[in-house]
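Incident log, structure service

09:12 report received: a user says their structure output differs between two submissions of the same chain.
09:20 pulled the input from the user's history:
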Amino acid sequence: MQTEILGNTESFNKQNNVLVIKTKEAEARVWVYSPTVIRVSISKEHSADTSFAVIQKPLGDVDYTESTDYIELNTSALKLRISKSPLRFSFYTSDGKVLSEDDTRFGVNWQGSRVVNYRKLYPDEKFIGLGEKTGNLNRRGSSYTNWNTDASDHNPKSDPLYETFPFFVGLHDGLTYGLFFDNTHKSYFDFGASTDDTMSWFGADAGDMNYYFFGAQNVAKIIEDYTWLTGRMEMPPLWSLGYQQCRWSYTTAAEVLDIAENFRKEKIPADVMYCDIDYMDHYKIFTWNKETFPNPKAMIDTLKAMNFHLVTIVDPGIKIEPGYKQYDEGVANNYFATYPNGEKYIGNVWPGRCHFPDFFRDDVRKWWGASFTALTKPGVEGFWNDMNEPAAWGQDIPWMVKFGNYYMPEIRNAYGMQMARGTFEGTKKILGNKRPFVLTRAAYSGTQRYSAVWTGDNSAYDAHMLLGQRMVNSLGITGMSLVGVDIGGFSGDPTPELMVRWNSLGVYTPMFRNHAAKGTKYREPWRWGKENEAIIKKDIEQRYRLLPYIYSSYYQSRQTGLPVSRTLAINYTQDTMVYTEKYQNQFLFGDAIMVAPVESTKFTEDVYLPKGEWYRLSTEEKFSGGKATIADAPLTDLPVFVKAGAIIPMQNVIQSTNEKGDGILELNVWYGKDANTFVYYEDDGSSYDYQKGAYYKREINFDPAKGNITLSAVDGTFASKYNKIKLVLHGFDGVTKSKSKKIKVNGKGLAFTGNSLAFNNDGKIIKIEF
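09:34 re-ran on a clean worker, output below:
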């Protein structure tokens, strides 16, 4: 097999605002999507320009100049210098600092259908991203394959896994850039692992060398641009942010209800119960087992009366069984994947011999979505998409299997995404003005528009707990904000200490779900003895206290794409300490909270505090940043720190998100030297009325120089469920310990009780002077 390298420019011109460059080997096209986003696509034969991920169109004009050796394209933020002979692409900041460039020798090349782009590697270059990948935060020196895989019992070095997000951020010389390789074929990324540290490269088995280059000069802005391009999540149902209890399987309706009742008896907050595959009739999708779940509606009505929501699992495999509704309809309408001769593909999964829906067809997705009435009529509101890599026993579905106009190798990585799309669009239509909760195991870039994801079948040991947090943080870089892991580990049995520790980390995991495999110990909070149950309960209560802050953080995700769980590399990009293995698991939870995961066998932890001042959340002890500290880490107190200047709204404990609570919003402010702003957001948590203005939003400002905290007037028509605000000041010793202990609220002096005071929440401008 010969290597064919992209050669010299033979001609170029602008066609309909696209720069088209032809060589003997291929044709390159260049678009300007925005001042900070440029697309390059190089192909031997450009086919229909479709993308499962991208939802935007180019916004900018392709303005270029020409010299003897170069074509130069400029935006207000980027400069693309295109070498004519050979054809190579180099990206610069607008003031001429190099961001990323093709390797001058090899650039883009082909071996058969396989296409690869070799790029120059800079001495200090680091790489973050790619979503659900094992290994270190800094991908430098590692290589990865994207091929969505049912990776049961994977370990901290396994690759590939369940999901494909071919987007990364490069960092060098104080500069940042991003690159999204939009190609759904089996793809590869090598960050200097195999090239004597001289080149990085990425490519795919087939398809175009089609990538989007992001040139914003901070990681948060790159994420904002990437999620502008590929879409952002809708506001999730509030109940999906509470504690979720799952198991493979609760095998009867009575068992599901018993577990739910025990949460209420023990007064442990929870919102969600799950039904895994055993609720179905012989694993047939959209059915119920008539013996063990004889009256689904009665079961769900009872759950709803206890303020629980039910999530049920769905797999793509449709059992071959004449008389089974989905099988009959799928056969009659040719909805299933086929071999080239038209014969329907058969693979074995849980129900036995199955056909697989062609989710790449709009009519099939609509049929699939409409089928959810079998679950929604009894009252299901959450839909868990599993086995959608797609998984068949034996893994690789033959490459000649066709899904519409695509063959398996072209779209395996996007199959789970399209299933989640069908699920989301269908259930959203059925539920009307009620938000569905969709969870998927397999995904591709853009899945955030339809679904949450989790990291698949993890295992019950400490290294997996730490790996899971790195994957959650990495998924956040790729636009996935509503992300979780199986708390406690899916496979194996956690020690009580690991269960307690993992649960404490779950408080700060965007999706907080406890899940375990058949044959393992039951994982509910009361299974670990009274002393451990008390710790687990306390931590779950902390999750519910933080929900006003968490929900506001999801509003931020919807607006900007910035995830709820954030690697420190987003906010402290140029601080080399955050990339070291010792500290790489630390993360920000929202704007203000920093969490340091700790193994269950350790009771102190070396924690790195980035530049600035920090408070230990549990003790209010103050620390100077820019250095490490040894933090106490008993099982009762995970090291959690709050930024100086932080504004964190909280509430008193409730047993579920459906409870109205006591009407008090606790507004916590930690003293700092710098001013800070927090956008507080609230809506009904369940409908789409927020898209019509039915929300409650206000800006909260802390200005230490002026000695005040201000709350803007409310924006939106939604009435807050909090009629009182309790202001709690932390680190304001000069204020709270003064003899007068007085503070002015809109000019009226109010007295402190300890470090707090309360006042009515009337939605008008509030100015607090201290």
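09:41 both user submissions now match this output. Likely a transient worker issue. Closing.
09:42 reviewer note: The first strand starts at residue 3 and ends at 5. The mean pLDDT is 97.
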